[in-house]
C-alpha cells in the first residue's frame, strides 16, 4: 500500500512539475518575447509578474514610481517596453512622440489597458479610464473644451488659484508641521 501511495505521489509530482515547466516555457517563449520580436528595448521580465517591481506588489512603491524608475532606465530611448504581468505595455519617453500619439494619432490608441466596471464604480467611467468607442465619444465631446483659445483664457485664473494655494500652504506650514489636506482643499 505504501509503495502504491509513493508511486502515485511521484507520478503526481512529475505531472505537476511537467505542467509548471511547460507553462514556464510557454510564458518565456511566447508571452514574454513580444518586445524582443518587435525589437523594442525592454527589461527582462520575471515570469508571472513581468517587469512589475516586487516592491509594487508589496505596496512599498506606487505605479507612478514604477513608471518613473522604468523611464530613468530607458530615458535615452524614444520608447521602451514593459510587461504588466502578462500584458506588454509601451512606455513613450519622447515628448514629440507623445504629442503625436495624443493629438494626431489618438484614434489608433483608444485602449489604455485599464479595466472599468461602471456598475461598481460609476465615477471611473471618465475619459481617462474608459476605452474603445466609449472613450472616442467622450473625447470628441470634451475636446471642444480644450481648444488653445479656451485654455489661454483659463490660464490667468488657474495661475491666481495656484498662487493663492502656495500662499495658504506656506502659512499652514509656518504654523504647524502637520498639513491638513482636507481643510486645504475645502478653501
UniProtKB/TrEMBL annotation:
A GO molecular function assigned to this protein is: heme binding
Q: Where in the cell is it found?
A: Endoplasmic reticulum membrane; Microsome membrane
Q: Does the keyword Cell membrane apply?
A: no
User: What Gene Ontology cellular component terms go with this record?
Assistant: endoplasmic reticulum membrane
Keyword presence, Cell division:
no
InterPro entries linked to this entry:
Cyt_P450, Cyt_P450_sf, Insect_CytP450_Detox
**One Pfam match:** p450
The membrane topology of this protein is: Peripheral membrane protein
Q: Which Gene3D superfamilies match?
A: Cytochrome P450
Q: Record's superkingdom?
A: Eukaryota
Keywords of the record, alphabetical order, are: Endoplasmic reticulum, Heme, Iron, Membrane, Metal-binding, Microsome, Monooxygenase, Oxidoreductase, Transmembrane, Transmembrane helix
Cofactor(s) the protein requires to work? heme
Membrane-spanning residues where?
A: 12-27
Which family does the record assign? Belongs to the cytochrome P450 family.
The protein depicted here goes by the name Cytochrome P450 6A1-like
State the organism named in the record.
Ceratosolen solmsi marchali
Name the gene that codes for it.
LOC105359489
Amino acid at each position: 500500500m505504501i509503495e502504491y501511495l509513493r508511486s502515485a505521489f511521484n507520478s503526481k509530482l512529475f505531472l505537476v512539475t511537467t505542467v509548471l515547466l511547460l507553462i514556464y516555457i510557454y510564458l518565456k517563449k511566447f508571452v514574454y518575447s513580444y518586445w524582443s520580436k518587435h525589437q523594442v528595448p525592454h527589461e527582462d521580465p520575471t515570469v508571472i509578474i513581468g517587469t512589475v517591481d516586487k516592491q509594487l506588489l508589496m505596496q512599498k512603491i506606487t505605479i507612478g514610481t514604477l513608471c518613473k524608475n522604468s523611464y530613468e532606465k530607458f530615458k535615452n530611448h524614444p520608447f521602451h517596453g514593459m510587461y504588466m504581468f502578462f500584458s506588454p505595455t509601451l512606455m513613450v519617453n519622447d515628448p514629440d512622440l507623445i504629442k503625436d500619439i495624443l493629438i494626431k494619432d489618438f484614434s489608433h490608441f483608444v485602449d489604455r489597458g485599464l479595466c472599468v466596471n461602471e456598475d461598481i464604480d460609476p465615477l471611473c467611467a471618465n475619459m481617462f479610464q474608459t476605452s474603445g468607442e466609449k472613450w472616442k465619444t467622450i473625447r470628441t465631446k470634451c475636446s471642444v473644451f480644450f481648444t488653445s483659445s479656451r485654455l489661454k483664457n483659463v490660464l490667468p485664473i488657474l495661475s491666481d488659484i495656484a498662487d493663492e494655494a502656495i500662499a495658504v500652504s506656506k502659512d499652514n506650514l509656518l504654523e504647524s508641521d502637520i498639513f491638513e489636506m482636507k481643510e486645504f482643499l475645502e478653501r
